[in-house]
Amino acid sequence: MGGSALTADIPVPMKEATPEEQIPITYVPARNTLFLALALGFAEVEGAQDIFLGINAVDYSGYPDCRPEFVTAFENLARLATKAGVEGAQFRVHTPLAGLSKAQIIHRGLALGVDYSMTHSCYAPSACGLACAQCESCRLRKRGFFQAGVADPTRYQK
Asked: DSSP label at 20?
């Protein structure tokens, strides 16, 4: 994959995108389409009809493959593009985080036992894995922990 600040030698912006901006340079072309296509193939083989995707439409940064319209279109594609779908299977893409704020996601994760110190969301981590604290993803994460009233355990660069 290329064409993105996350997959190519393109600088990661160190500011938050504004609503007026177009799709940000951190968009990875067709990433969620590819993930869903792989999941659909596995689901069909296993006889499953439920696929789960961890997208977030509230803070989605303008990524087109995080919108509800995309999910609906993929469900339609799944019915047309698979043997199981043609034979009547009703594939459903569940997006349990889509309508939640970052603070709500953090609370949900804590209720499920997520150890957030083992995670980061950084677009530009250091070579040893420390989050940059300045990219849009880090800023959204920090704000989410603040709004959740939870200490942020993320290891940030100094």
From this structure: T
